[in-house]
Structure formats: structure tokens, C-alpha cells
Design a protein that fits this description.
- The protein is an alpha+beta fold and about 90 residues long.
- The chain has one domain.
- The chain is built from two helices and five strands.
- A hairpin with a 7-residue loop joins strand 3 and strand 4.
- It is extended, with a radius of gyration of 19 Å.
């Protein structure tokens, strides 16, 4: 199973058409959070897929490549449904 990963990153923003100088000056970079399965990490990028076929290992859907220079934070997510249910019921935690 591929590790589930949350990446917060900065992206460019722009528009076509006419706009005022003030709108351009006031516009900030766009911050995004993407959650997906980590396919690969290189020196320059993090590659995530939102879906994959666990039977056919070469079948991926809805993927993104995020440049590392744009990444603010990246962390793997660990989730155990059994533990979450037990914590909700007050059995553990």
C-alpha cells in the first residue's frame, strides 16, 4: 500500500483579461493542501495519486506532481479505523 500523504504547497495565481494595478499588487500566491498516495519522491518533486488500483499496479487516477520548492509542509498520515473507533468509544486514548 502506498503511504497516504498531506502536502501543503504554494502555487502561482493569475487571470486573463483586464484588471487594475491594485488587484495585481494585492494578489498573493495561492496556498493549497493536497492529500494523496505518495507514488514517488525525487530531489525536485513529490508525486501523488488520489486513486490507484491495488490489484493492477500500473493503474493510477487523478495524479499531481508538486515541485519541492513550492512545498511548505509534507507529512504521512497514519489511520487505523479500529483504533479510531475504540478512541471514540473511550476504550483507548
Amino acid at each position: 500500500m502506498l503511504p497516504l500523504t498531506i502536502v501543503t504547497w504554494i502555487d502561482a495565481i493569475g487571470a486573463d483579461g483586464w484588471t487594475s494595478l491594485k488587484d495585481i499588487v494585492d494578489t498573493e500566491l495561492s496556498e493549497h493542501t493536497t492529500v494523496g498516495f505518495l507514488v514517488m519522491e525525487t530531489d525536485n518533486a513529490v508525486k501523488l495519486t488520489m486513486s490507484y488500483d491495488s490489484v493492477n499496479e500500473d493503474n493510477y487516477g487523478a495524479w499531481v506532481v508538486i515541485p519541492k520548492v513550492n512545498i511548505i509542509s509534507q507529512k504521512e498520515v497514519y489511520f487505523s479505523p479500529t483504533i479510531e473507533i475504540m478512541e471514540a468509544r473511550g476504550v483507548v486514548g
